[in-house]
Amino acid sequence: MAPRDANWIDGLRGIASFMVVCGHLCTAFVPWLHSPAPDPKTAPHLFQLPFFRLAVGGRSAVALFFLITGYVNSIGPIGKSRAGNTDAAFNGIARSALARSGRLILPTMIATFLTWFMANTNAYHMTKHVDSTWIRQGWHRQEPSLYQAFRSLFKAEVETWTIGWDDYDGTQWTLHLFLEASMLVYMTMFATVLVRPKARFLIYGVLYLFFWQKGEGLAVGALKGLNIVFGMFVAELHNHYKDSATSVLPAPVPALMILAGMFMAGYPQDSPHHAAWSHSMSKLMHSVTHKDTDVRRYWDHLGASTVLLGIFFSRNARRVLTSPVFNFVGRVSFPVYLMHNTMIKSVLTWMVYLPSAMNPPRNEKGQQMDLQRGSTTHIFIAVFVFFYILYRLAALWVAHIDPVCAKIVNAATRWAYGEPAPMPNGGPTLRRRSAEKPRTVLPS
Where does this protein have compositionally biased stretches of type Basic and acidic residues (predicted)? Predict the structure, then answer.
């Protein structure tokens, strides 16, 4: 069986990226759906109900990304460790840890450059005047001089990885956490390559308890730590059960786990006290976590983890996630994540607010008021076109930009390892020195 089991994990990653985009669209146009009901005495809308609300909520999808990071980055070292091939495990960890930064930072820098270019060619001008608070908050001015423009670009590129904030694209705040999470995986794998699987399970348990009690404030412990540790735990299960994983549990059990996880992942982002079911969940989680904890992150984690575990044990769920559609959305998931905010602030905003922009509303004093969105039908059509353009651009990114990034990262890592560069015609590699003994290099 292939390490990613015919890419079912990539299909899940594609769902996660799609959910993130849907969540931001909800925040932009229908933020009231983030509550379980308008108020405690009013009946909820269909998409405020459990399960249905996942269609417009993206918070649990971020937890899925961290789970997948823990799973994918640890599955190889765990397999080599269990096989007793510790030298290959250490070699793989070292290579992956070195290349991981480039694989995350380089595409993100390109995405930041693109949104910077859009802002400084005044492509976001309409964004400043729309009636959507979330879109309006993403507006960035056109810098008055070339020097200030490049200075702001440098600042955004650096601060994405230092303070976790990009002035041009606020949705990149998670990326430095993904990089930290990857390094947590590699550090844990490095420390446990020589131990027995049972001991490693015990270590996962200790780490899980540590991060559970650490989740104060923004709950980085729950957002990053718990999901990463659980992802490594599932990777351990993968190497333990191998091909028999989908026949371990009776057929109904994985399906029930997926349903239970979807219910937990639907914990509302806002006003949980507006509905009895979410208010009960809030009280339950507050009773088992730190006083100042953001319990939303804990329910996101528990829901996403239970869904992942259910899919891991389910043959049918894996079969669905390996279908051509899910394989495609999985392949383009990272560029979709990187570009969707830029596309919302430009293409989608232009489509939704163009009729109002052609005849801007003004108050009785003649002052321009916020641009008003089109009808519901108009918005649905605009969102459909937006998704088509977004995924087409993401496919182009995978076809043309990803290979360039991969070549740069591979060249940099080969230089760091002191390895010879491949011949331009694809022939054998050049020897560094005839007197130097050739070195056997294990694949990453």
Answer: 433-444
410 within domain boundaries: no
Beta carbons of 235 and 74 less than 8 angstroms apart: yes
C-alpha separations of 31 from 116, 185, 189 in Å: 27, 35, 41
Q: How far is CA 209 from CA 111, 170, 206, 402, in A?
A: 36, 31, 5, 38
**pLDDT tens track for 417-444:** 988 877 666 554 444 333 344 443 333 3
Comparison of pLDDT for 393 and 292, the residue scoring more: 393
Closest of 95, 99, 79 to residue 193, by C-alpha: 79
**Distances, alpha carbon 66 to alpha carbons 13, 58, 149, 227, 252, in Å:** 10, 13, 33, 6, 27
Question: Which residues sit opposite 130 in a β-bridge?
Answer: 371
Map residue 260 onto helix, strand or coil.
helix
Residue 301, pLDDT score = 94
Please check whether residue 378 lies inside any domain of the structure: yes
Contact (CB, 8 A) for 279 and 271: no
Task: Find tokens 């990539």 and name the residue.
Answer: 10
Q: What is the pLDDT of residue 365?
A: 79
Residue 327 CA to residue 306 CA, distance in Å, equals 22
More confident residue, 363 or 426: 363
Contacts of 366 (CB under 8 A, 6+ apart): none
* pLDDT score at 219: 52
**Under DSSP, is residue 59 helix (H, G, I), strand (E, B) or coil?**
helix
Euclidean distance between CA atoms 308 and 9, whole angstroms:
9
Residue 321 confidence (pLDDT): 95
pLDDT for 57 = 82
With 60 as the cut, is the pLDDT of residue 3 above it?
no
Tell me how far apart the alpha carbons of residues 204 and 200 are, in angstroms, rounded to a whole number. Answer: 6
Q: Answer yes or no: is 418 within a domain.
A: no
Provide the number of structural domains found in the chain. 1
Tell me the two tokens of residue 403.
């290979």
Asked whether residue 383 is domain-assigned, the answer is yes
* Closest CA relative to residue 267, chosen from 259, 258, 257, 279: 279
- Residues of 169-207 as b/e, b for ≥16 C-beta within 10 angstroms? bebbebbbbbbebbebbbebbeebbeeeeeebeebbeeb
The residue ranges of DSSP E strands in 141-288, in sequence order, are none
Contact 358, 371 (CB under 8 A): no
